Please model this.
Amino acid sequence: MIQLDFAKSGGLIPAIAQDARTGKVLMQAYINEESWRLSLATGEVHYWSRSRQELWHKGGSSGNVQKIKSIYVDCDNDSVLFQIEQIGGAACHTGRESCFYRKVAGNELITEGEPLFDPKEVYKK
Model:
């Protein structure tokens, strides 16, 4: 198996999800060794949730899974780029296509685009 340097940053490394077709950056999260192994084994991205302190199969509750098309590892072996097919069109838990939907404009953040789904309905929270 490919050995990433999880020790350098306390067991977690950044992982970027990019739409393989459009090149749009959809989200940034973290992986640990277990989520890395699961992602390689299943062909779908698994992350480590820092807020919940647990493994997180992206799309496990929403159905918006990320199917891996290719993976790139940076020069220091401590960051990965998943090029993915985003099932359902929304990568963000807010229901938007991308987590990067707020643009800096002076001293403000301007929201771009509309949610593709209602998170309250999908996550039942």
About this structure: Strands lie at 13-19, 25-31, 46-49, 54-57, 66-73, 80-86, 102-105, 108-111.
